[in-house]
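Hi V.,

Quick status before I head out on leave. The structure for the redesign project is tokenized and pasted below; the design run finished overnight.
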């Protein structure tokens, strides 16, 4: 499924009319057939030179994609721009070799939409764009193959591809197109879902499977059906991977939504048949480095295809460091082929465990929330057998520790600690694991001081010796941090901890927001190895709201996340730029005050245990006509206290209010309504806080 560079509303929206399922999406939705044309018929019979097998095998036991495909796809970085051309594709192949990506496991260099001319030739054949690809696709394939890599290509299971330019799709041309791809030396086909004319999805995708098989060339087959017809339930003998979601965009909200849609489908993944929550956005600039590491970690533990979506010609060293992390890639590429399963997810604190072929477990401690959180589990809970102790390797630090069985960490906001844990009899060779923390949710007002307490806990089986801890404030910001008690201990036995009190002073005039303090510990193992570990811990600076009733759009918030663009005050969400919204309008009623958001969204307010009620009129904004499906929630100190059902553009504004007496933080949440993100523009109209 394709999206234009500035559009966020190009994902799937299905309407069922009688027996016809209509998909409206991407860069122009379903295209009408030319005047006088009949509706698209089932695929044309194969030519004599590429006859379909008389009795196609019911499984794809062809030895392809035994681990999730790894490679590059140009769409997220170039779309249909002129710089998507032969030189660019060859350059990516060169970069794969020069930057070590090939050695790390990346194999496929994939062309997306816009590689062809808009019209077929007189014989009905596809014609590569002679300006973009003057040597043709075979020349590009030959070059990519000369580097020890493979070439992928794109088309759609419809009359046109997803670009609004209208390139030819393969519906009715499956056998001819598949043979062209094979003749060119293509190794991978991404088969989209646009302009499908309502033809049954399973029929369309099965026909292309048979056409690819008829060529005799091994071609990995990627079904880009967006999850509309639950391909995980029927496509294991059709394709090697299938999209489980709509398109990803380069935002935290989008990535999080797709991850949540894909995680419950672990039972359907395995060698040769993978769940695909779409390409990687790592390096495209819309998320932080912490969020990109989470993106890469969670895609890997879900055994997802790893298709780089950033422009490698201009990628930063940090982007290459993330994309080439061999320890994390090994989790994705484990030959057992298990997708990670959710162990727990309470309060946005996720534990996901993936069984590995060697008996170890990859374990993700993922923090969905906007502040640092302690996330903990045990070796037994993630599926490991009983043992005296375990070895836990931190896959981003590239360090090994021993654990008595508890796996825990203070995980930064939107961060992930990724471990590989085994019941290893050589555990004593490694230093004990330690956990650092500063308690939950430290809130301070500008110019004030507060006493906080840090904790060093020994999670290992043997003692930590010569332990010292330190706490520092944001660099150069005028914060003062002073210890109010001992900052060290000669030894901390297994399972024990020690606390240090600190006094933290926030400079006057500090703006409302979340600030990271740095908590650091140093200790020695029984063998004398010196270990230093550092965690960021979140302190929230905020001023108590005024007494009386205030419009939430007039108050400072602690933190926000938004599925597209920023949260807007007193306007709708609009598009991606700040301030580009319209008057808040629900059901033709205009509201002067409120918040305009886009799912997945959250807005946090500090209420200082001094407020009683939040109220708003909520609904889908009119700016996207009939599109949008959302649900609203109000949370108080991590507990959901009010919610709506699923709302659409057809619904009038609903009153939503909640008693938040005694809460320190109130969070306003908008979800995608369970059907993926598509024009989910939501309004908290006339939102008010009473204190």
């Amino acid at each position: 499924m394709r999206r234009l560079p500035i559009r966020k509303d190009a994902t799937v929206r299905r309407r069922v009319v009688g027996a016809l399922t209509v998909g409206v999406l991407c860069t122009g939705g379903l295209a009408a057939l030319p005047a006088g044309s009949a509706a698209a018929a089932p695929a044309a019979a194969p030519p004599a030179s590429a006859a379909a097998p008389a009795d196609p095998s019911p499984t794809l036991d062809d030895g392809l994609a035994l681990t999730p495909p790894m490679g590059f796809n140009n769409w997220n970085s170039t779309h249909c721009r002129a710089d998507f051309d032969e030189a660019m594709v060859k350059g990516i192949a060169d970069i794969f070799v020069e930057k070590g990506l090939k050695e790390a496991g990346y194999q496929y260099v994939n062309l997306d939409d816009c590689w062809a001319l808009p019209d077929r030739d007189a014989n009905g054949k596809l014609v590569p764009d002679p300006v973009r690809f003057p040597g043709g696709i075979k020349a590009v394939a030959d070059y990519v193959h000369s580097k020890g890599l493979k070439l992928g290509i794109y088309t759609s299971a419809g009359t046109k591809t997803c670009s609004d330019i209208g390139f030819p799709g393969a519906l009715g041309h499956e056998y001819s197109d598949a043979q062209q791809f094979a003749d060119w030396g293509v190794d991978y086909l991404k088969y989209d879902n646009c302009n499908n004319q309502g033809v049954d999805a399973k029929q369309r995708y099965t026909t292309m499977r048979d056409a690819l098989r008829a060529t005799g060339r091994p071609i990995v087959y990627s079904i880009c059906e967006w999850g509309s017809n639950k391909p995980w339930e029927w496509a294991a003998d059709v394709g090697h991977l299938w999209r489980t979601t709509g398109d990803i965009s380069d935002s935290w909200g989008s990535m999080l939504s797709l991850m949540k849609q894909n995680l419950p489908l672990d039972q359907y993944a395995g060698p040769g048949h993978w769940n695909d929550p779409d390409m990687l956005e790592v390096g495209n600039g819309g998320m932080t480095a912490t969020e990109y590491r989470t993106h890469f970690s969670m895609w890997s533990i879900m055994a997802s295809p790893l298709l780089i979506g950033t422009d490698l010609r201009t990628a930063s060293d940090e982007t290459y460091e993330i994309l080439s992390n061999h320890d994390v890639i090994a989790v994705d590429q484990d030959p057992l082929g298990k997708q990670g399963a959710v162990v727990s997810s309470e309060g946005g604190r996720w534990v996901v465990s993936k069984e590995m072929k060697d008996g170890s477990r990859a374990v993700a401690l993922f923090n969905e929330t906007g502040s640092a959180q302690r996330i903990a589990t045990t070796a037994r809970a993630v599926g490991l057998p009983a043992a005296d102790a375990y070895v836990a390797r931190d896959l981003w630090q590239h360090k090994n520790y021993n654990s008595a069985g508890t796996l825990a960490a203070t995980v930064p906001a939107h961060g992930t600690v990724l471990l590989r844990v085994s019941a290893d009899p050589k555990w004593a060779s490694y230093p004990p694991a330690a956990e650092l923390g500063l308690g939950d949710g430290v809130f301070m007002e500008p110019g004030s001081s507060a006493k906080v307490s840090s904790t060093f806990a020994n999670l290992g089986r043997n003692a930590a010796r010569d332990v010292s801890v330190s706490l520092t404030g944001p660099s150069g910001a005028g914060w003062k941090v002073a210890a109010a008690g001992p900052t060290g201990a000669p030894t901390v036995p297994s399972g024990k901890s020690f606390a240090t009190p600190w006094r933290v002073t926030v400079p006057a005039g500090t703006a409302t927001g979340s600030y990271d303090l740095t908590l650091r510990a140093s200790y020695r193992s029984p063998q004398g190895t010196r270990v230093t570990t550092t965690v960021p811990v979140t302190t929230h600076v905020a001023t108590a709201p005024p007494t009386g009733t205030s419009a939430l759009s007039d108050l400072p918030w602690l933190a926000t996340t938004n599925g597209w663009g920023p949260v807007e005050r007193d306007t709708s969400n609009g598009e991606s730029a700040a301030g580009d919204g319209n008057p808040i309008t629900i059901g033709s009623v205009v509201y002067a005050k409120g918040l305009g958001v886009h799912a997945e969204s959250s807005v946090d307010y500090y209420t200082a245990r001094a407020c009683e009620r939040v109220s708003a009129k909520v609904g889908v904004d009119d700016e996207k006509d009939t599109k949008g499906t959302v649900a609203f929630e109000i949370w108080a100190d991590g507990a959901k206290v009010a919610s709506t059902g699923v709302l659409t553009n057809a619904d009038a504004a609903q009153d939503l209010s909640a008693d938040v007496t005694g809460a320190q933080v109130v969070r306003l949440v908008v979800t995608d309504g369970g059907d993926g993100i598509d024009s989910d523009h939501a309004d908290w109209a006339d939102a008010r806080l009473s204190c």
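Above is the designed sequence. The mean pLDDT is 90.

G. will cover questions while I'm gone.

Best,
W.
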